[in-house]
Each structure stands twice: as structure tokens, then as C-alpha cells.
Amino acid sequence: MNTPNQPTETPGETVARLSLAEKADLTTGAGWWHTTALPDAGIPEVRLSDGPHGLRLQNDTHADHLGINGSAPATCFPPAVTLASTWDSDLAGRVGGALARECLAHGVHVLLGPGVNIKRSPLCGRNFEYLSEDPLLSGVLGTAWVKGLQARGVGASVKHFAANNQETGRMSVSADIDVRTLREIYLPAFHRVVTEAEPWTVMCAYNRVNGVYASQNPWLLTDVLRGEWGYDGVVVSDWGAVVDRAPALAAGLDLEMPSSSGVGPARAVAAVESGELAGEALDRSAARVVALARKAAVHARPDASYDPAAHHDLAREVATRGAVLLKNDGALLPLDPAAPQHVAVIGEFARTPRYQGEGSSRVTPTRLDDALTSVVEAAPAAHITFAPGFPVDAPDADAAALREDAVRAAESADVAVLFLGLPPSYESEGYDREHIELPVEQTQLLAAVRAVNPNTVVVLANGGVVRLAGWIDDVPAVLEGWLLGQAGGSATADLLFGRANPSGRLAETIPLRLADTPAYLAWPGENDHVAYSEGQFVGYRHYDARDMAVSFPFGHGLSYTTFGYADLRVVPDAGGLDVTVSATNTGERAGHEVVQVYVAAPGERARRPVRELKGFATVWLTPGETRDVTVRIARADLAYFDTAAGTWLVEGADHRIDVGASSRDIRLTTTVPVDGDAYADRPDADSTVAVWLAHPVGGPAIEALLNRVQKSMGDAYPKEGSPRHRMVANMRLSQLAGLPIVPLGFDDVHELVETVRSAVGPHNPLTSP
Q1: pLDDT per residue as tens digits for the range 116-164
Q2: Distance (Å, rounded) from C-alpha 245 to C-alpha 216?
Q3: Can you tell me the distance from the alpha carbon of 643 to that of 641, in angstroms, rounded to the nearest whole number?
Q4: What gap in Å lies between CA 418 and CA 446, rounded to an integer?
Q5: Among 316, 313, 314, residue whose Cα is nearest residue 492
Q6: For residue 252, what is the DSSP state?
Q7: Residues 563-568: contacts with CB within 8 Å, 24+ apart?
Q8: Which residues, in sequence order, are CB contacts of 176 under 8 Å at separation 6+?
Q9: What are the residue ranges of helices labelled H in 510-611?
Q10: What is the pTM of this model?
């Protein structure tokens, strides 16, 4: 039934007026980038577009989700790998706001981003689109990005929910993850974005999670996302991720994208008519889509515009802030822009920049700065020469001849600036990398240049981590440029010549070798399953727990100035901890410092990492300036997920607070007592004697029984600390009671179980709400 929509109607009331077929149509796209509109019912379409570091606007005629066809010009901001290295939530919010302006100007209602999947392995071909190996950093920056975007009336689509951490088999592979690891590592960034920023949509992943496709996983989409987190927005599929529309609707997948040419709606109608799918499930999803369409229409601005020059300047700022100075021996950098020196610029990437990754996020930039031109402009007194040095994705090129030309340029120069990195074919959506090495022709070039010029600076362009061991000891300065977006060339020149002070910090660890990485033995799985066997020990949690040498640790980054920390203070309250430190610029240049706060939890009930990032703050300091920096740590962020209790718990014990400039550069440490959550297990007859002894209620009760047993057995009773005593501790209580030499009966066991049951109850009522 088609009747005009009334302005005062709720989405549910509007849906109640629709036919079954219309409801089903609403929950499936009408084209590649549009939802279904029902004008007679007053329901407009919603226009979506790829992101997340720029607007990839296409029309339906040439639409794709693989980056194959072109798109309208838009600002190509630095991808997530670079944005994350700024450690600056305010900057992330400004990028979100700029993206919203461009979306409004082009009539786009929902931008597909941000990507907050965890970087489990450096081999993931899409790591350039993701923020970090750490869930807190990913969540904080992702939340700021969404808030910045949605504050201007454009919806976000946080993705890919969940456990999409590889491209190999991404359409079908099952990410097999224990519940604690899932809760502590792979879901928290989504939880933070959902609960703090309320994104208009959440995009499900292609893969399966513990055997069930994310697109039809009721535990993921309904129990956790809606039940626990309170989400009331639209769950949208990744493009083509729906396997079966009926169970997807039942699980909470509201909007299937793109159009399925009628297959999805027909399946939904048939499922409702047969009773396979409850009509209420279809109604709920249709109502959510109606609410989204109304929200989009309210915020649409047909007359909107934006300033491309201002957005290019913002892209330049992000690129400048996101590049990480890894090494600067002898203060080789910054170069003097006024010196009449000979600078050899070597490497094709200086002339033909790698500024973004391949795939659905590929943006057509409004303009593109290259480093070679920018270096010439930045140093008018210098003599600049250029040599391409190596081929890029050109197997037939003469690498030896290019290398010889570069060496001739380098040997006569005062300094050689060598632009290296990964060719576009090395990393992309759709497939994973096979290794983390630079191309061999580049490392050969580096060795040849370094042999003739000790003053060699390396500038890297890569979306995923590359191995530095084997060559980094031979060069005095290395700038990790990641992928710097359309203004990366000018940003690089700003950093090389000191017009800007490097402030980027690593959002992921750079390992010595691939074999050291946490998922090395499990990647990428087999028989369409991948086991997350490293558990919660991902990234720096892995390396720090093993005290393993790395090239550069999580959080590392140098500056052209230095910073000191002093006077660490921690003030606890019922809601968490306020950690305050005095930070001082002890050098001669103004710059940003990133104060990082890690917590070492006691780990008495469950194994915990050596330290975990729990807060950070970015502060601008002029030379000699001191500021108090306060970082708030919420009590919830001190908790771990207890699988026995099925809930989050904070352990009551001293927690160590580590403040520093990386996970390995800890400057100040203190401990603070933290009140724990009241909790007790419910041991049963098959629990061990040790478990019973540790229980707050069962412990005293079993002690009384064991004292009786000890008196009865006399000298035959195992002495405390003896091997036999430890063996008894590991026996099941029912097993112990069944031994004829032990004066302990099953009635005693039953009485013990009932004692605990009456005190603790059936669902651990000692657990704090």
C-alpha cells in the first residue's frame, strides 16, 4: 500500500503503511551507490560513496568497489596509516569535517569509513587503510574522525565489522578467535566509535567470525552491537557481502548493498511469507533505513561548496604531522635551505609520488605535489640534481643503468636524499603481501649510493611496514613518510628543510624480520580458516612480552628538538585515573610531543601484557616551555574480559603506570592501588582443589574439610609444598572424594557445592554491575 508519508510519522509507522515487497525493496540498494527511494511514501534515496581518506565519487554507470574506474576529483588526504601516526584526535576530527564539506558539495550522504580493523600482521594488503595495531589508538582516532564528519551532517560507516584483518580469502575465510581476544583486541575500537560517536551506519565484513558470516552473525550484529552497545543505526553490508538475505535480516543486517538485481528482496519476501523470517525483523530493518533516509535528507545541502586550496593545506598539515623521523644521527636533518649546497634527489618516487594505496579507497586528487619540485622550491640557494635510480613496476627497465646514473649524481653531492618505497603493485585491497622487503633494486641502489656519499637521507613511501634491518645501520637519517596524500611532496620538503618539525609517532611496531611477527606461523590460515593463535598478544604486546628486539617500537618518533618528563602524579577516583606529568621542551625548536601512558595490570586472574596503551596526549611546546599534561584513563579501560564470568572485570591490586615516548622508552613509573570488582567463581564438584582453596567462600569451607582429612591421615597426609601436596591441589574435588584412602565423601562435596551456590548464586552476583 502506497500512501504519502506524514511528517509526524515515526519510521515504524511509515513502514507499517508499506507492502511487503516495498519493505523488502527498502532494505536492498537500488544501484551501486544508492538506496531504494519510495517517493509516494515520502522516502528519499540515500547516496553513499567510498572513502575514507577522500571522497571517491562515481556514477552508477562506471561504478566499482575495487578502484578500477575513475572518480570525480576530490582532496586526497593522507590515508589512515599516516593519520594514525599523528596521534592527534583533533586533527582527525578536522579531516572528518573537511571530508563532510566535500560530501555535501557532491550530494553524498554517507561516506564509507573509517576503517578501524587492527593491524594483526604487516602483510595485510589493506593496512594503509587501517589506523593501528592498538585498539585504543584506533578507537580514539576513529571516534574523532566520525564526530568531525557527522557534526557537519554526513554519516559515517565504521568498518569492517569485524575481524577483517587480511585480504587473503577475505570473502569467505573464518577468523577463528577466542572470546577474550575478540573482546580485548578486535572489538574495542568499534565499541568506542559506536558508543561515543554514534555512526549513522556500521559496515559488516565479508569474512566469517568463528564460522559464521559477519553479514548473518546474530551474536555480532544483534547481541553485541545492539544488545550490549545499544546501537540503533543501520547495519550495512560491505558491497556483495550478503550470502543469504533471510538469515542476514534475522541477524540484524538492515541494508544490503549494492543492488542484488531483485534477488535479495525476493528472498526476503519469500522468507516472510513462508514463516522462515519473522515479519517484525524485516519491519525493524526497513524502519532503520527510513530513519537514515530522513536524516540524510534533513542534512543535505544542495548549495554546499568547499575550498579546494584550504583542504589541500589541511592535507599538507596532516602529511607533515604524520611522517615519522625514525633516525637522525649527527643531526643531519634538517638541511639548511639557505646553504649553497649540492643536493642529489634520487628515486622515482620523488618525481612520481606514491601517495595512496590501491583499491576502493583510491581517490582522484584535486592536485598533486611532488617532492622533487617542492625541494627545488624550498632550497633556492641549493644546486639540485635528480636521478630516478630504479624502475617502478617496470620489469623490463634497465635497473643497472639507472643505478649507475644515480651513483654519479650522489658522489658529487653534499647530501643525497634517496626516495624509496613500495611500488603500487606491492600493496592493495584484494590481496596480501608475501614479504615486507623493499624491492631488491632499491636496496642495491641504497648500498651503491651510501658507498659514495655518507650523508644519505632515506625517505620512505609505503602503506605497510617494510623491513629496515640490513640497511638502516648504514644511513644516518631515515624519514618514514608512509603514504602522504596529495600534498605529500610539499610536506616532505617542509620536513627536510626544517620549515616543519617532525612529530609523527609509530602507530605500529617495525619488526626486525617477518618471522618475528605475532601471526607469522598462523598467517593466512588454511582450508578457509585462520587461527588467531597469538591471542591478545598483537603488535607491541607481543614484542614487549617476549622482550624481543625490534627495529623501532610502537610509539617511537624523533624530533628536531628534545623533551623531558617530570613529576608524575596519579589521582584515582571511582571512574578511573587522572595521570598528570610535566612535559618540557628541552631543545631549541618548537614542536609537538606525544605523551603516552601505559598500564601494567596485575594479571593475577588472567595473563596480561607487559603494558598496554591506556591514554595519550599531544602537546605543542616552545623551547624551554613546561606544561602539565593530564591523561584520563577510564576505569573500563583497566578491565579485562573474564571468560569464566562472561563479563569485564577490574582486578583489585596495584597497577603500574608507565609514562614515556614509546612502549620501550618509559620515562616515569609509579604504582597506584585500584579497587577491584567483586567477583567469585562458582566451583563445582569437578573443579580442582586449588580452585576451591582460592575461592572466597569455598576456600574456608574446604580448608575445614581438609583439616579433618589431615587429622585422620596423620603422617600420611602430604606435607604442604611437597610434590604430593601439589598433586592433590591439581586433583578434581570429586576425584579426591572417590579415593578410598581419603576420608572425604560425596556428601561432603555436595555440601561444599551448595555452600558456594547459596553464597554466590547462579550468575556470579558478587560481580559489580
Answers
A1: 999 999 999 999 999 999 999 999 999 999 999 999 999 999 999 999 9
A2: 8
A3: 6
A4: 8
A5: 316
A6: T
A7: 563/587, 563/591, 563/593, 563/621, 563/661, 564/667, 565/595, 565/659, 565/660, 565/667, 565/668, 566/668, 568/657, 568/659, 568/668, 568/669, 568/670
A8: 210, 211, 529, 530, 531, 532
A9: 540-545
A10: 0.92
CB atoms within 10 A of CB 119: 26
Q: Which residue has the cell 618475528?
A: 516
CA quadruple 510, 516, 519, 525: dihedral sign:
positive
Among 25, 238, 283, 516, the active-site one is 238
Q: Are 373 and 334 in contact (CB under 8 A)?
A: no
In terms of DSSP bridges, do strands 563-573 and 576-585 run parallel, antiparallel, or are they unpaired?
antiparallel
For position 2, what pLDDT does the model report? 39
Please name the residues in contact with 666: beta carbons below 8 A apart, sequence gap of 6 or more.
598, 658, 659, 660
Q: What is the pLDDT of residues 36-90, one digit of tens each?
A: 999 999 999 999 999 999 999 976 555 556 555 667 899 999 999 999 999 999 9
**Is 238 marked active-site?**
yes
Alpha-carbon distances of 295 from 44, 101, 145, rounded to whole Å: 10, 17, 19
CB atoms closer than 10 angstroms to residue 662: 20
Task: Give the integer Cα–Cα distance in Å for 620 and 535.
Answer: 37
Q: What is the mean pLDDT of residues 105-114?
A: 97
Q: How far apart are CA 283 and CA 18, in angstroms?
A: 10
**Segment 346-368, tens digit of pLDDT:** 999 999 999 999 999 999 999 99
Q: Copy the grid coordinates of residue 271.
A: 522468507
What is the pLDDT confidence band of residue 596, given thresholds at 50, 70 and 90? Answer: very high
DSSP-based helix, strand, coil % in the chain, nearest 5: 35, 20, 45
Residue bearing cell 591514554: 615
- Indicate the Cα dihedral angle 756, 762, 767, 769, nearest 10°: -150
